[in-house]
Amino acid sequence: MKALVLLSDGRHPVSGRPAPAGTELQAIALARGLTEEVAGLYAGPDAAAARTALGHGLARLEHRRLPEGDDPLPSLAAAIAAAAPDLVLAGRRAGAGAQTGLVPYQLAEALGWPLVPDVVALTVADGVLEAVQALPKGARRRWRVKLPALVTVHPAAPVAASFAIGMARSGHVEDAPGIDAPQDGTALEERPYRPRPRLIASAAAGASAAERLKAATQSAGPGGRVMVDPTPEEAARAILEHLRALGVLKPAPGRD
Amino acid sequence: MNAASALSLVIVALAILLAVEAVRVARRWHVGRPASVDWWAGLAAIPKRYLVDVHHVVARDPYAARMHALAAGGLLAGSALAVLGLVPPLAGSRWLWALAAIAFLVALAGGGMVGRRRYPTRPARLSGGAFQRLPLLLVGYFGGALLVALDAVLDLTGPLGWLGLVVASLGGFGLVRLLADGPMRHAFAGALHLAAHPRPGRFEGERATALIPADLDAPRLGVAVPADFAWNRLLGFDACIQCGRCEVACPAFAAGQPLNPKRLIQDLAGSFKDAPPAYRGSDYPQARPVAGVSGPERPIVGAGALIHPDTIWSCTTCRACVEECPMMIEHVDAIVDLRRFQTMELAAVPAGAIAPLSESRYAEEPGGRALAARTDFAAGLPLPLIAEKGSCDVLLWLGSGAYELRHGRTLRALVELLRRAGIDYAVLGPEERDCGDLARRLGDEATFADLARANIATLGRYRFNRILTADPHALHVLRNEYPAFGGHYEVVHHSALLDELAADGRLALAAAPDGRLTYHDPCYLGRYNGETDAPRRLLDRLGLERVEMERHGKRSMCCGGGGGAPVSDIAGERRIPDIRMAQARATGAKTVAVACPQCAAMLEGVTGDVAEVRDLAELVLAAVEAAVPQGAPR
Amino acid sequence: MSRTRRDPREEREARRLAGSGRPRWRLDAPPTSGRLRRDPRREIDALRVAGTTRLRLDRTGRAGPLALPTIDTAAVAAPTIRIVDDPAYLVTVVPDAPGGRLAPLDRQLLGAARTLADAGGGAVLVLSFGQIDGLGAAGADRIVALDAESGDPSARAAALAIALAALQPRHMLLPESAGGGDLARRLAAKTGEALFAGAESLTARLATRPAANRRIEQRGAPPRLVTLAPDAHLPHAGAPHEARAIAAPEGRADAPHTGILSIEDLPVAADALPLAEADFVISAGNGITDFELFRALARALGATPGASRMVCDAGLMPRAAQVGASGTVLEASCYFALGISGAPQHLQGVARCEHVVAVNTDLHAAMVERAGLAIIADAQQVMPALIALLTAEGEE
Question: Which segments constitute the Electron transfer flavoprotein alpha/beta-subunit N-terminal domain (chain A) (predicted)?
């Protein structure tokens, strides 16, 4: 079995130095759990960040050289077709650039492969991949798909291996020209990022009309309330009411 | 042919046997890598190194010191005198045998002390097995030889002399048999270890505590198999006498983590032998199961090897074991070498260490925080950047503690004190990268080297007289470890600088309110750098009632915060800071003075009945503020 | 396209306060249409950091969501259903709606769609997989029910592609959530439409999104396909819309992807969740002695159990359950602390929790100060009362 991990020209979110994206490293760790034959694939001008991924457990990196700003998709699709892996893994988002998370989907579409998003665990038996997808609030979903397939990796996947300079040194980089695919300059204007305030109407806005009414009639919402020495029953009732107002606890049966 | 000359011949025979065994032992070290050793200087220095440096350590246990002096001195003197009996002019000389008798009597007293220590009950730190038989053999050899000598002096009639000869021969033969893999190995290997020690600077008055840089161009980084150790390191492991002093001093052992420095050295001593002798001392606490296979080319660390990884990751690199070792063994060097292979070749680090190592590499800061945010603690305080000033007298190195609230308070106090004392200070600000301490102790020499070179390049752009830091880990790295990378600086710890300012009268101190206080020595200040006096002088200037914990100064106990132990987080039965805090409480002190961000964080994390944790800078600032009358201009 | 004509008189009448005497109007109520009126004082108050004497404002949103005026449905005149009969264009919305209920992000998405539609007389059309409640109140004009047979997102994306081709909406909005984000990307890849992923602000003219690890903001007119980040837009707060169901557009979906053999949800018990992923954490400290009871309460509440360092050190709870700087830093939305005073290292672990409920005997404990609801009582006695109450409710 052969696995290929898509790498991006990542940058560390704080320092801005070349660094592989976290989920790409987790993808390497997941792939190595399945097979010995794991290679990285990167298409773009500068493989500095992709090369560091070698130190996190990749034996081989395929670099498709592209001019700055070219669409990596044709090069990636051609490289995958040439390598004919059973499984392609990608991070959830690239480590830099537009970070739309679209490339794995476009590749899956181009290759006609099934795509499983946000996986945290992988097993393979008889050419069938069993992948566990992470959903919000700890929920999990199991997919069974025929290989070859493409998966994107969720941050809740097992932690990636740390960097080992010995592995980075012994890793092998195969450099080949990619397929030039100039893109017309992005239509989007770019500015330095400015954080925006989160807009939420109120804690109860998503709840039922009655709860919205309650939230509206309370002066400042259920904030900073202190009950001193209530009876355990009073305390229990107050806690349950509060938890229900927050929406973390299901409404009591029979009084919806 | 009398018993005396027969004894002389037996001793010569034993000496020949001894030499054969010694060659066998020495040949085993041959699997190690070559090391450059100054043999003549080393051999010539053995007596001084033994009498000064070794004795300095041994004498901490006066009983053991006397015991060893009597037994070893008597053994060497008695045997040498007995051999002299073969020289024709001296043969049969009563005076010679009288001297020999005295020597053997002295040795017998030493042998008796060896036995007295082990019988009827053996202390936990001492090993059993062959070690437990050692006093019997010693008493046999010494007692038998004494009888022979007395026979020669007093011309006793009857078989007493011959009986003595038989007993002495059996005892002596038993002792020689203990040379290759028994307790007597320490005598031969220990002496050679003194001559060929990997850190000869230790004996020349240097602290010699800086880690030795790894050769990053070597085909294999760190130590995977025994043959990767230099031969004189293997020799060092063989020098161990299993006295268990390291075991008593080790904080990880005390906390029930799976590390016992004595057992570790025994494992390493056995690692390059195909059939090492069984170990009969106390085990690693909560020992993890390992396969236990050994051999010169077999991996050392791993569940399928000899030493479990949790063992090497339990170490706080506090050097308490090295400080206590009478055989001058360098435990921490061995552990870091083993870690280097695990980290740099296998990426097999504890889960908690992955993120700090990655962030050290990609963000140049183990917490992954923005370098510019390091100065955030000083909001409102004047903190000039050296980039704007170009030069300054004192460059304040903030360290990674600056990001934390607790150490931020310390640094605020320190900056305020510098301001009041009129010091021309500045910080690197966003140009200060992590010093690399954490990465290096965790075995990531490559990341450390990158950080060191980047920091040295930055420091090279500015002019300053000295570097001040409140972090002993940064102090040690900047002062002792950067020189190997070309950075030579005068680095001063804030305890020393504040003491200097108080002595000069540049900081006026008022008597502090009453209260008992004890000072916890940071390992990297006390043991690594020998600075134990300045902090105490400074505290005494505050007029506090200072009490000492039983373990203090260079023999202080670690807080558990060094060597990446907090991030490795190997589970134990207790926590090291809890043990240390209990020791502080036992003195009756209300306050523990600390001088290190790690110590402050670890000791403050202790819950329950605790002493207040204050940094020296905070205590001094309180005293300075008390000295300024209310409303007076500052 | 002309905007809907506003009638200021009618709008003012809607706010008249009942009662005799001179006429009075509620001025803080949101207008029935158009933009919300902002009350800068109230916004500042909401940002104020409690417990400090000098004015400190937290603009990062960590202190809690910005509390904008809540909608007092009772005070507004009886809701009249707004009907958009002849829309100039369509804005389609594909909500996640787990379990048929709109999630907060779905409401925000509909609010954004409303803004886009109202800018030029358009209508909001919801493409739903299965029955969804409350779409009219959330601002939907039309509903098209799509075949919800398959849980396979690629089949859903194929259905959306058909709808996209048939309806030719001006915009199609999806939530930037696990499900919606996946669906949007599948759709973009399938149709070749440009995707504006994770918009953090969205109007008819301009949308912005973060890129390059939030170092860059990309901005431009929103393309057809947009996903909306959480808390980037207010939910629709005006009059309800008709939410008329219309027939699904004709079109044959391709056969489902043959590579996908099965998709099934795995049962995950709250107490088996990793703490870092849990949404509701109940945590035991020194004030707890009965850990069987504590675990039973965690099960009854459906919360993930955690513990303070003291408890883990004592071996009463596993080390993996430790909350705090040296344990797990939580991402939970609610933290229920039983008998925890709140050491600084522990509070670091709950810094990102939006809501904290504390039961503690010490009124001056740091955890009590941090809590939205604090009960000064013995947690050991509150636990059985909580279990009894939950059991009694279950039997009702």
Answer: 6-192
